[in-house]
Design goal:
188 residues; Jelly Rolls; 35% strand
């Protein structure tokens, strides 16, 4: 080996490892809407755990994985004409999720629901613990995003959110509200 090849090997290894390092952090898997990394679990302003799910249109509805509603918004239209990254609740279906933070009653809306595919009538209920009855915050036709306020719910903070399809659609591949994510807008 000459002096040139001896020096080249460490430099080559350095460049390879540097490139791998950059590639490993260049994606945004698990990022929020502002492309900031979102850590899983406690402290995350998004839904982090599915408590229960009542998904309608079994056998027809193609998007029945309730865990697709966890973390930040990430739904996609795939090249084969299908979708990914959300759960279709089906007519009158619902999902109960635990938030990674306490949602607090702050200025303006406190909870955002990200809805995919089309606009659907979506209702939101909240509670501070699973022993206390859920309180209805309201419903609205959600396109991509709808926001709800804790004001008037009787709660100063909540940890559990129920999202419910309020429509009366028939069964089809994406029937009911298509929930991509639930985010705490005001939290501690």
């Amino acid at each position: 080996m000459n002096r040139y090849t001896e020096n080249l090997k460490p430099k080559t290894l350095f460049y390879i490892f540097s490139l791998l390092f950059l590639i490993s952090f260049s994606g945004c898997n698990g990022c929020d809407k502002d492309s900031n990394p979102v850590s899983p679990g406690e402290g995350n302003p998004f839904a982090v755990q599915v408590i229960s799910a009542n998904i309608g249109c079994e056998g027809i509805n193609l998007y029945t994985n309730p865990e697709a509603a966890l973390w930040g918004p990430d739904w996609n239209y795939l090249p084969d004409g299908r979708y990914s990254g959300f759960v279709s609740l089906g007519p009158a279906g619902d999902i109960v999720i635990k938030m990674g933070v306490d949602v607090v009653d702050g200025p303006g809306p406190d909870i955002a629901v990200y809805q995919a595919v089309s606009d659907e009538e979506t209702g939101v209920y909240v509670t501070d613990n699973l022993s206390t009855p859920f309180q209805f915050l309201g419903s609205e036709r959600c396109g991509y995003l709808c926001r709800f306020d804790l004001n008037g719910s009787g709660f100063q903070k909540v940890r559990y959110v129920m999202v419910k399809d309020m429509g009366d659609s028939d069964c089809y591949e994406t029937a009911g509200a298509d929930i991509d994510a639930v985010e705490a807008l005001n939290y501690k």
